[in-house]
Amino acid sequence: MLTYAVRRLVLAIPTLLFISFVIFMLLQLAPGDPMAQVPLTVPPEVKQMMREALGLGEPPLVQYWKWLVQVFWTEPKVLVDWMTSETALFGWLPDTQLYQDELRVISWQTRSPVMEIVLQRIPQTLWVVGMSYIVGVLIALPIGIYSAYRQYSVFDQAGTFITMVGFSIPPFFTGPLLIVIFSVQMGWFPSIYDTTHEVTDWASFKYQLSQMIMPVMVLALQTTAQLSRYMRASMLDNLNQDYVRTARAKGLSEAIVVMVHVLRNSMIPVVTVIALGVPAIFGGAIITENVFKVNGIGQLLITALFANDLPMVMTLTFIFAFLIVLFNLIADILYGLLDPRIRYD
């Protein structure tokens, strides 16, 4: 298992480099000019100097190489110094665009380091999108298991109906609908997510929960609808296998047969869906974050796309690609833990 994990990590390096190169070249073809938002009163020579300061006057391959150095060398050193702020192993000066005379990845829109903006937005995304994913998984797995065990029962039919509703109704409809019902008419929850709110006591914690409920409900509905169907289908496929009849013939209790033997084998395909859905958490929920005004990663990506902020879009896209490759590896490793028949020799 360890050898397989190391081999996959080594192979992930050229994969990520190829992905980053393709993304960078595609963004170079994108229309628009970062100097378009500069006031018309700025002289052309000043605009040209600004373009050169952003590295836009250099060939694309040179720009790509500088971006690689910034992402894989400069930013990791900044991260290490940020985590060890008391010692500052590399001598990082906070709130600066330079790191020991090394230029960091700078947003064209805000003229500030991209990674600092991302680190500011991640907690908001994890509060909402991450919590909704956890809630969705915890609800979907029991529903899928019981629906398969009681196939065609009232519970199974109701679960199928709710699943179809969750698949059919998009977030841009359920979000405003919940706002109208629970915020406007009933006044139970705030309609706008306050990203500046800090949890310091019990009262502030209750307010944080109240403003999280509606966006979490919208996103958890979709997660539950998807995972419960996968779980149900996988359970049904295993409930009719020979080893289940053998286990029952040996006198094992129904709870052990279902929750130990059948569930373990049924989780193998579901693990893939769950693991590959984790990167979407860090990608944020673009529609839901905009509906509830959550300043998360999804909203940041949309803003960067409209502003033609290529360094921000490039960095966020590469982070998503890295997370997908990483959680693909995690899913493959979990295969071996769930099914002893799978070997990685």
Automatic annotation (TrEMBL):
Keyword set includes Protein biosynthesis: no
Domain annotation ABC transmembrane type-1: ranges: 122-331
Gene Ontology terms: cellular component: plasma membrane
Main location: membrane
Keyword S-adenosyl-L-methionine appears in the UniProt entry: no
CDD domains: TM_PBP2
Membrane topology designation: Multi-pass membrane protein
Top-level division of the source organism's lineage: Bacteria
Keywords attached to this entry: Cell membrane, Membrane, Transmembrane, Transmembrane helix, Transport
Spans traversing the lipid bilayer: 9-30, 125-149, 161-189, 209-227, 268-292, 312-338
Matches recorded under PROSITE patterns: ABC_TM1 (PS50928)
InterPro entries linked: BPD_transp_1_N, MetI-like, MetI-like_sf
Gene Ontology biological process terms from the UniProt entry: transmembrane transport
Annotated compartments: Cell membrane
Gene3D superfamilies cross-referenced by the UniProt entry: MetI-like
PANTHER family per UniProt: INNER MEMBRANE ABC TRANSPORTER, OPPB IN A BINDING PROTEIN-DEPENDENT TRANSPORT SYSTEM
Annotated family: Belongs to the binding-protein-dependent transport system permease family.
Annotated protein name in UniProt: Peptide/nickel/opine uptake family ABC transporter, permease protein
Protein species of origin: Salipiger mucosus DSM 16094
